[in-house]
Amino acid sequence: MFVLKGKTAIVTGGTRGIGFSIVKTFLDNGANVALLGSRQNSVESTLSKLSQYKDRVIGLWPDLMNPEEVKRDFEKVKNRFGSVDILANNAGLSSRTSLYDYTLEEFQKVMDLNVTAVFVCSQAAARIMKEQGGGCIICTSSMVGEYGQPSGCSYPASKFAVNGLVKSLSRELAKDHIRVNAVAPGVTRTDMLSALPKEMVDRISADIPLGRVGEPEDIANAYLFLASDAASYITGQVVKVDGGARV
After folding, report:
1. From the candidates 53, 155, 223, 233, which is the catalytic residue?
2. Under 8 Å between Cβ of 38 and 61
3. How far apart, in Å, are the Cα atoms of 162 and each of 63, 72, 120, 136, 189?
């Protein structure tokens, strides 16, 4: 039911963590995938781990805040695979800086990647999707996009903004048969979490009703569902994947 055979996906932030899991899950379910990263070497290193899919995966490294670069590379994807059916806006940057210590530059850097890049990529993808008769856009939000967090205010602010974009774009693009949704992960086992002591991770897990932190595959599976035809009547939603966590 969740097969993506014949569809083409673009995944930003696709070189590690949740993004890499989305790439792998899409490939395993038949999609062609363009994975995007910030640096050529990290993209090429990731592609080397996906050699078994070599005919169905490519890597690109545009500046996601540059509309011309994004447009150029999205057209490359369309020309290579024939369409752009799915955009996974996953690239992001977090922050834990206190308000008192923030610089405007640090605040803006988070907002640029987490919000401006989502706008730029969504615009470029939507233009292609409209011409071909439809598609879907999925954005990575966060549980802090609802609850906030005690420091690093730029990160939850950016995710609140992502949720607003999803709600608004879903209404604007519905007439063009483009669905727009978001996935809001809870605490997930990424590089940052893996660096924490086991006892700290155990303490975090104890506060989650399902008794464990999320795995990148848990988030990728939600992406798979929303990208599939099984979700053809779902748009404008922010789907929580957090083990039931409430803060």
Report:
1. 155
2. yes
3. 19, 24, 12, 15, 22
The rounded distance, in Å, linking the Cα atoms of 90 and 203 is 27
Residue scoring higher pLDDT (49 or 54)? 49
Query: Rounded CA gap, 203 and 212, in Å?
Result: 10
What sign results for the dihedral spanned by CA atoms 239, 62, 84, 67? positive
Asked if the model's pLDDT at residue 92 lies above 90, the reply is yes
Question: What whole-number distance in Å separates Cα of residue 56 and Cα of residue 231?
Answer: 23
Q: Which of 174, 178, 83 is nearest to 137 (CA)?
A: 178
How far is it, in rounded angstroms, from Cα 235 to Cα 191? 30
What is the tens place of the pLDDT at every residue in 188-198? 988 767 766 67
155 is catalytic: yes
Tokens of 13: 């932030």
From the number of C-beta atoms within 10 Å of its C-beta (0-12, 13-18, 19+), residue 55 rates as exposed
Residue 164 contacts by C-beta under 8 Å, 6 or more apart in sequence? none
Q: State the Cα–Cα distance between residues 85 and 153, nearest whole angstrom.
A: 33
Q: How far is CA 140 from the centre of its chain?
A: 4
Q: Between the CA of residue 101 and those of 96, 106, 116, 152, what are the distances in Å? A: 10, 10, 23, 10
CA distance 108 to 1: 41
